[in-house]
Design goal:
430 residues, alpha/beta, four-stranded mixed sheet, 16 helices
């Protein structure tokens, strides 16, 4: 069933399935997880657990229980439409409230896909905070959202205007814009394109004064190095698995030694394009139709009618040449990896982006158990929320998903999320 508004928290026992706890520990088989209110109180083999009479039992036999997944690069204002230049005018034409409606639909899609926490990196401020706060109050279903609001960039015009970004002309202005965003209540800052070394420093220093982390949109080696050395917290895209040849060994070594997290967002062009060529039927997935409105679904389908010719994919043939080396430079070097997908971008639907990203990492030789960690415990660390999120253990918030299959054997089991528990509340059930 669909993700829904939050029911009252209760006492829950998830019983029978295998537990992957997020720590890369051996699985707990035939396990039981006891949840009281929002939090986990016990995790153990079911044979060792006495379930109190006032607990509601959810049978997870034959399934895998794991922490809710953490998506570190989402765009709720996008739903996979093929052309930003047509999508945003179409939304405007539908009338006020449509952008918020789109964001609500995206949030529901993410939650249904097993994403219990997500970072939105670029959208208008008012709508971003409104959707985040209504999810937090349980008024609409969605992951725990960390919102950047508008990104900060040196490149104005088209894309910046469409996404509600802020174009700056000096490092002082960049710092001032961070101050304004912090005062408005954003959770993270997004540093976008065209920024100088001094800009990164000004943005990072100002954000850190407010205890806010900065995610940077970086591709070129010089930008990655500047962001790394000037204190940016998360390197997002970082080559995006093929928009540039692999980085120098010196840069990779410095990223690894700094322990600086990288979120590759590998799948969204260099893999999604050939995967769609092999199976164009994915564009008509009934899950997309079911989780949008008829009007939105029709507009998305219209935009993808000639998907091979979309401007978004104009460099993809070049990206595909470097895609494997682009990922392996990180998976083979000991880089701290989080999982993010740029979900919502053309053909990159919230409903499936994260399991596709996970599959790319596994296909490139990253062990499935490490992918699970990247999706959970590392994601929580990147958010600065390890006290509450990322693992299944007593005291943590009960953000737990139940998937059909064993993701350690076949990572695409993550595409079969049957049950979603968020803060002890069942948000989706089979």
């Amino acid at each position: 069933t669909e993700a829904r508004q939050s029911p009252a928290p209760t006492k829950l026992a998830l019983v029978g399935g295998m537990v992957l706890d997020g720590y890369e520990a051996p699985p707990i088989h035939n396990a039981a997880i006891l949840i009281d209110g929002e939090r986990i109180v016990k995790v153990a083999p079911a044979a060792e657990v006495t379930i109190p009479l006032d607990y509601t039992v959810v049978d997870t036999s034959g399934r895998t229980m794991m922490p809710g997944m953490i998506e570190l690069h989402a765009h709720l204002i996008l739903l996979g439409h093929g052309n930003y230049g047509e999508w945003f005018p179409w939304i405007a034409k539908q009338g006020p409230g449509t952008l918020t409606k789109v964001m609500e639909l995206a949030a529901r899609q993410l939650l249904n896909a097993g994403v219990t926490s997500a970072v939105d990196l670029g959208a208008p401020l008012k709508e971003s905070l409104d959707v985040r706060d209504r999810i937090a109050k349980g008024q609409i279903p969605g992951p725990r959202m960390s919102m950047s609001g508008p990104w900060i960039t040196r490149q104005g015009g088209g894309m910046t205007d469409q996404f509600g970004g802020i174009a700056v002309t000096s490092s002082a202005q960049a710092a001032a814009e961070v101050e304004k965003l912090a005062a408005a209540g954003v959770d993270v800052i997004k540093a976008h394109s065209g920024l100088t070394r001094e800009d990164y420093k000004a943005i990072a220093d100002t954000a850190h004064k407010h205890n806010i982390r900065v995610h940077a949109h970086v591709y070129a080696e010089e930008d990655v190095r500047n962001a790394l050395e000037m204190g940016i917290d998360v390197l997002s895209h970082a080559g995006s698995a093929g928009t540039a040849p692999p980085y120098s060994q010196a840069l990779i070594t410095d990223i690894v030694n700094a322990g600086r997290p990288v979120v590759i967002t590998a799948a969204h062009r260099a893999w999604v394009y050939p995967d769609t060529a092999a199976f164009p039927e994915r564009l008509q997935d009934p899950e997309i139709k079911k989780s949008t409105t008829p009007e939105i679904y029709a507009e998305i389908q219209r935009s993808l009618r000639n998907w091979r010719a979309l401007g978004y994919f104009q460099r993809t043939d070049r990206e595909m040449i470097f895609r494997e080396r682009g990922v392996k430079q990180f998976t083979e070097s000991g880089t701290v990896l989080g999982m993010g997908t740029d979900s919502g971008t053309p053909m990159n639907f919230h409903t499936e982006a994260l399991w596709r990203e996970a599959k790319v990492h596994v296909d490139m030789g990253y062990p499935a158990i490490k992918v699970i960690t990247a999706l959970t415990r590392t994601g929580a660390a990147i958010l600065g929320k390890t006290r509450d999120l990322g693992t299944i253990e007593p005291g943590k918030l009960a953000d737990i998903i139940v998937v059909n299959g064993n993701p350690l054997y076949d990572i695409t089991a993550l595409s079969h999320v049957e049950t979603v528990v968020k803060g002890g509340k069942v948000m989706k059930k089979p």
